[in-house]
Amino acid sequence: MSNHRSLSDYHSVRQLAIRSLFEMFEQFSEGTVIVDREARIVWINQRYARRFGLESAEQAVGRPVEQVIPGSLMREVVSSGRPMLLDILDMAKDPLVVMRVPIHNDVGELIGGIGFALFDELRTLSPLLTRYQRMQAELASTRSLLQVRQAKYSFAHFIGTSPASLEVKRRGRRGAASEAPVLLLGETGTGKELLAHAIHAASLRADKPFVSINAAAIPETLLEAEFFGTAPGAFTGADRKGRAGKLQIAKGGTLFLDEIGDMPLALQSKLLRVLQEKEFEPVGSNEVIRSDIRLIAATSIDLNAAIREGRFRADLYYRINVLPIEIPPLRQRLEDLPALCEAILDGLRDDHQTLYEMDVNCLELLTQHAWPGNVRELRNLLERTALLGDRPQIDKAALHSALGALQPLPAVPGTPSISLAADQDFYAARAAFERQLIQSVLTEQAGNVDAAAQRLGLGRSTLYKKMATLGLSS
User: Fold this and answer.
1) Across the chain, what does the average pLDDT equal?
2) Cα separation of 163 and 464, whole Å?
3) At residue 301, does pLDDT exceed 70?
4) What CATH homologous superfamily does 2-125 map to?
5) CA distances from 75 to 26, 64, 110 (A)
């Protein structure tokens, strides 16, 4: 008997509590509105109606809630059945802090929703809003910093379908799948930094920072601090708060060390310790910091010659030369010129708002130049030609004028000259030339396929495939 009475009491107390809660919110809030299942207003108190320009609350009944309260999200509440316990409703004068909850009947069916405008002075929420704004500012700053430190290029930006270019991209993808150091070798302007970006973008560290440092561009006295960072007040003129180095900034990501061949010997030994021990100390500090970086190094000099001359440590060379990728100069992949020119001219359109096109005769000129500056020189030439010209069509004469004197391609010793026979087209002539060139270099290298591949700037497997296609043997 007492159980039945307690259940009855529970039900009545619950109903009284709900009624009291509603009356309290309705009395002390800035306004209250109730909508049905279709988000039509079934009741609104007089204060709220007048706030939205109505003379009486009855004028709002039956109308869609958005017609009376612009920007209201009551329809979303009655559609989803989920409450919005704290939100800000923008108003012409002062914003309102509002709460919206769904209404269910006794069997749990959603039948409408109720909204309260709690107050219109956001100063009440000042501590909460201040903390929220500070967190948002810190998040935006972190996102901005990470965006700056992310890779800018992918393998798609390394333009070229020649065997040499495909071999570079194949090795680059192998490097992206590994955590081992990568050593990029090649002349200036061949795209070493672009490839470093692409390797990072395709790796498991792609969402972490990509940090680059050029050993040749920073004075030797500042390079160590730039690399390892400094402790507070480490030396005269140092930041009193200390400064993070590139190793710390790149934590969890990739450090691209460009022109590593120009790094001072003293710093080379410290870099070797970082790679072996996975730790370092900022300048002027005894604190040991754990290092978690993936190293990609690049150089345009002959490191073996630098080792013989005592300018580069042999032990560091062996440590970074785990996966070497040699990027061939442009003169060794001239068949990539059409694709490269098209991509560069497309980029100029974005910069100059002009669609540039190149005559077919221009390629004949471009294939006669040795390109000592490689792809960078080609890009500069096309942009200079476009700027000096007065029309979007680039012809051979304008290109020759912008290029100046041609630097002839170096001759391969023992390579026979070849001309187009009467019954040959371009593809037949190219196949004949490749056959004679490869055979000549194989003869020069005494049948050593590895040496011939290196001489031709091809991968070993690529050379074997070409030999099979052309019917050649070593």
Assistant:
1) 84
2) 12
3) yes
4) PAS domain (3.30.450.20)
5) 20, 9, 12
